[in-house]
């Protein structure tokens, strides 16, 4: 599984935008589609909220990519 580290510029990032920023989805709309299809988990649990607030310390997995979110 590929691991990507993403540094936050603010307090949080919406899940669909995180997938775009990490390069897993080519757009926010594609990120929303991945969440709706059940392809995304946050901290090991399935996540169905497209705009879930992802904060530093959380780990998102989608399509064989693990995204570790770190603070500033």
Structural features, described:
The chain is an alpha+beta fold and 72 residues long. Helix content is 22%, strand content 35%. The protein contains 2 helices and 7 strands, in the order ββααβββββ. The protein has a 5-stranded mixed sheet, covered by helices on one side. Strands 2-5 form a two-stranded antiparallel ribbon. α1 crosses α2 (28-36). The N and C termini lie far apart (25 Å). The model has no long low-confidence stretch (mean pLDDT 95).
Helix content: 10-25%
The structural domain count equals: 1
Distance from first to last alpha carbon = 25 Å
Mean pLDDT score: 95
SSE layout:
Elements: E1 2-7, E2 13-14, H1 15-21, H2 28-36, E3 40-42, E4 45-46, E5 53-54, E6 59-62, E7 65-70
Helix pairs in contact: 1-2
Quick recap:
With 72 residues, this protein is of the alpha+beta class. The protein has helices at 15-21, 28-36, and strands at 2-7, 13-14, 40-42, 45-46, 53-54, 59-62, 65-70.
Keywords:
72 residues; Structural Genomics Hypothetical 15.5 Kd Protein In mrcA-pckA Intergenic Region, Chain A; 5-stranded mixed β-sheet; 35% strand; 22% helix
């Amino acid at each position: 599984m590929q691991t990507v580290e993403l540094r936050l510029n603010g307090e949080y990032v919406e899940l669909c935008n995180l997938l775009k920023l990490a390069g897993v989805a080519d757009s926010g709309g594609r990120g929303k589609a991945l969440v709706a299809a059940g392809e995304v988990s946050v901290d090991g649990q399935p996540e169905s909220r497209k705009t879930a607030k992802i904060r530093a310390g959380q780990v998102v997995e989608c399509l064989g990519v693990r995204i570790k979110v770190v603070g500033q």
